[in-house]
Amino acid sequence: MKCACGNIQTAYDLANERFAAMGVDTESVLAKLDEVPISIQCWQGDDVRGFENPDGELTGGIQTSGNYPGRARNGDQLRADLDLAFAQIPGRKRLNLHAIYLESNSQVDRDAIEPQHFERWVNWAKTRDLGLDFNPTCFSHRLSAQGLTLSHPDPAVRRFWINHCLACRKISDYFGKELGSPAVMNVWIPDGYKDQPADRYSPRKRLLDALDEITSAPLGNNHKVAVEGKLFGIGAESYTVGSNDFYLAYAATRKVLLCLDAGHFHPTESVADKISTALLYLDEILLHVSRPVRWDSDHIVLLDDPTLAIARQVVRGDALSRVHIGLDFFDASINRIAAWIIGARNMRKALLMALLQPTETLLEAEAKWDLTARLALFEEQKSLPWGAVWEFYCASKNMPAGIEWLETVRNYEKNTLTKRDATL
Ligand code: RNT
Ligand code: ZN
C-alpha cells in the first residue's frame, strides 16, 4: 500500500518493519481493520431528544448534561452533521437509530410507528453504503413517566410498550431487508425504583413475559434482537428490573443477543472479561462502548485501558464476526460532532492496536507456559509505533490522519451550527 504523503509513508514503512519483526503483517491488519463495522449512535447529535418534540425535556432514566450550541433539530440537520462526522472517521460504519428519530408530518404515537416513517433514513443510508441498527424508545413519553414500561403493573401500559417493541421489530426488519445487512435491534428500558421495592420478583416476571411476546413473534429474518442490562440509572438507584443477570439468562435461553454496555457495571468490573463468557452461551453479542464516570454511564469513549481491553478481547478471541460493536455516549458539553469523531476514532484506534498484537506468539507463549514471555510481549507492544500505522491508514483512505479534522468541525460550527440556535 502507498499513500501520497511523504513523512507518513516513511514512518509507516519503518513501523511496518518493526511489526513484521514481531510476526505481524500491517497490510493485512489494515485490510481487516477497515472492514470492522462500528455502529454510531445517532443520539449523540441531539442529546437523545428525537423529532417527536425536539424542544421538550427528557424524562425517565436518561439524561444528557451540557448546553453546547447547535444541536440538530430535524432529520436533515442530523444527517448533515453525521455526514460531516463520518467523513472524519475511517472504516466501515453503520448508523444506530432510535424510534424517536421518525420523520412524519403528523403526530404518530410510539405504538403506531411504521417503516414509512424511516424511509428518508433508509434512502440516506443506501446512498452511503451504511447499515442501520435500531432501538425502541421506552423513555421520554407520558407512559414511561412512572419509571416502568415493559414491567409496569398496569397491563394497558405494558401492552403499549410491547406494541411499540413489535412495531420496532418490523422497522428493523425493513432496514435489514432494504440495506442487505441485518439490523440489530437493541431493547433497553429504564425500569426501576429510586427506593427499595417491596417486591423485586414481580416486575422481573412481567418483563420476562413481555419480552417473550416481543421476541417470539415471527417478524422476519433481517434483524436480530438484543437486550441490554444496567446496574442503576438516574431515579432507579435501588432497583433495576433489567439487570445484567436477568438479561444474560434471558439471552442464553431465548437465543437473542446480549448487549454489554461498558458503562453499566460496577466501576471495578471488567466488561472485557464478560465477552468470553457471553460468547460461550451466545452466538453473537452487541457492545455499547461507552465510558462510565461516577454516576454517568455515557461519557465519550477514550483510548483508555477499558476500551483497549474490550478491543483486545474481541480480536484475540477471534470474535469480530460474532460481536457487533456499537457506541453509546452522549455529551452536550462539547461540539457534538467532535464528540462522535473523538469517540469513534478512538474505537477504531483501539481495534487497530488490538489487531497489531502478536496474537499467535502470545498464545504460543501461554501454551508453553512461558508466562515471562507473555508479560514481556504484552508490555513491549505498548510502545511499538502503532501511531504511524494509524496515520498511514487514515491518509490512505483520504481521511484526516491527525487533528486537522478539528478545523473542519470548527468551520462547520461557525457556518452552520451557530446559525441553528439563532433561527429558533
Ligand atoms: C441507557 C442505555 C441505552 C441508551 C440508548 C439511548 O443507559 O445505555 O443504550 O443509552 O438506548
Ligand atoms: Zn447502552
Total of helices: 14
Structural class designation: alpha/beta
In terms of DSSP E residues, the strand content is: 5-15%
The CA-CA distance between the termini, in Å, is 49 Å
Helix content: 40-55%
Largest sheet report: 8 strands, parallel
Bound ions, cofactors and other small molecules, one mention each: L-rhamnitol, zinc ion
- Evaluate the radius of gyration: 22 Å
Sequence of secondary-structure elements = HHEHEHEHEEHEEHEHEEEHEHHHHH
Q: Strand arrangement, largest sheet?
A: 3-2-1-12-9-8-6-4
Short description:
The chain has helices at residues 6-21, 26-35, 75-86, 119-127, 155-179, 201-216, 244-254, 271-281, 305-316, 336-355, 359-367, 371-380, 386-396, 405-422; strands spanning 38-41, 93-96, 131-133, 183-187, 192-193, 223-228, 239-240, 257-261, 285-289, 291-293, 296-299, 323-327. With 424 residues, the protein is an alpha/beta fold. Zinc ion binds at residues 188, 228, 261, 288, 328.
